[in-house]
Structure formats: C-alpha cells, structure tokens
Amino acid sequence: MAEELQILSTADKKAQYESLIPQIESLITGETDLVANLANISAALKQGMNFFWVGFYMVKEGQLVLGPFQGPIACTRINKGKGVCGSAWENAETIIVPDVDAFPGHIACSSDSKSEIVVPIIKDGEVIGVLDVDSSELNNFDEVDQVYLERLMKSLL
Predict the structure, then answer these.
(1) What percent of the chain has pLDDT over 70?
(2) Domains contained in the chain, number
(3) Model-wide pTM > 0.85
C-alpha cells in the first residue's frame, strides 16, 4: 500500500471506519516492529478520523508508559486503575467516556480533551497496552468506534 490514506471526510462515521480500517490493516500487515505499527496507526486514525489525540500506552514495569502518539504532549506514566487508561487496563475492557470531567479520577493531560475511548490491547489473555483516543467534543464516541477500534487492536497482534 502506498503511504497515503484515502479519506472519506464527508461520510458518516461507520463509512469512514469501513474505508480507513482496511487501509491501516494493509499498512501494518507484514511489519513486525510494534513501535512502527503503533506510530502508523496513531497517525492514520488522527488523520482519517480527525481525532484530537490518538496514542498508545504500553505496560512496562507495572505502569502504562506513553508510546507512539499524535497530538499535543501527553502524560508519560499512568498507574493501573487510575484514570480512563488505567481503568481500561485493570478491567481489560473498552471504556467510553462521554464527558471526561464526569469520570471519577480522570487524568487531565489536556483541558481540550472532552470525551475519550480507551481500548485494551490483549495478547495471550494479558493487557499489554491500550489505545487512547480523545476528542475535543463531548460525547463523540459510541459503539461504532468501539467495534472498529477493537477490531483494529485485534489485528495488531
């Protein structure tokens, strides 16, 4: 695949994902370097879906540590069970937050972030990291995002 995405900016969210996810899967197929794949996924999701912030936190030495991302600077380390990312890690499940200010214990890396979805990356039954996506709009994520982002995380490994 050429390193250029075909973006359906006028389509609805489902159609955007239907177009974008296969392009990302094609981009990472055959590449064995996880960091390279995470970097390209971050860039493709940010560009293709126009999210505020897209990135990964990887489990290292008992914490989530910032990995490849696109957007403003971010929190570097997150403890298990803390904030949305730490909660998704602890519970090994996707969390959708319509209003981050209403989430107990939310870690505010940027005051411009208004809603969030965090999808765990699970390998051999263990969470090895999370995909964190933030929007500058309230209530921007739903089950459509969850289905496609979970599918993408499963294709990663």
Answers:
(1) 97
(2) 1
(3) yes
